[in-house]
Design brief:
Blueprint lengths: L1 H21 L10 E3 L9 E3 L4 E8 L2 E7 L6 H18 L7 E9 L5 E10 H8 L8 H4 L1 E5 L6
């Protein structure tokens, strides 16, 4: 009886490992460009100047961008690269058609974890000012609303 139970558990364990080994990999989780799966924007693609586009979504007339960035040579340029990403989306990729853009980015931390490093929101007036080049890439984060920056980047 005991041998039969051990045999059955061994078979179950082998089957479990087989399913784990056959499961799909998440290697393509972060790509430099992604396509939205919503019906209204099914053919729309965005690209980032810096970092990798994790995903984007549209909700009513709001564009939500989720990025993964890498540190730059200084904290200020690490922050500014996010403004340049949004500037390019507005100027060259049709981002000016939205009433609001919500942007947030994550990065790998020293301990190997991934953490949010910045987030901000742009309203229609700010989007138009960027489109008209009244606000440029390195000013965007300073002019945005709901700005959150990882405290260690503020040093």
């Amino acid at each position: 009886m005991k041998k039969r139970l051990i045999f059955m558990l061994s078979i179950l364990l082998l089957i479990s490992f087989a399913f784990i080994g056959c499961s799909s990999s998440n290697n393509d989780k972060y790509q430099s460009e992604k396509t939205n799966t919503s019906e209204s924007q099914s053919n729309k693609t965005y690209k980032l100047k810096f970092g990798e586009l994790v995903e984007f979504n549209t909700n009513d007339n709001t564009l939500i961008i989720k990025a993964k960035i890498s540190p730059s040579y200084s904290n200020k340029t690490t922050i500014s690269q996010n403004g340049y990403n949004v500037e390019d989306i507005i100027l060259n990729q049709g981002g000016d058609s939205f009433d609001e853009i919500q942007y947030w980015a994550v990065a790998d931390m020293d301990d190997g974890s991934e953490s949010k490093v910045i987030s901000f929101t742009l309203n229609k007036d700010q989007i138009n000012a960027i489109k008209n080049k009244q606000i440029v890439g390195n000013q965007i984060v300073d002019k945005a609303t709901d700005v959150w920056i990882l405290p260690s980047l503020l040093n």
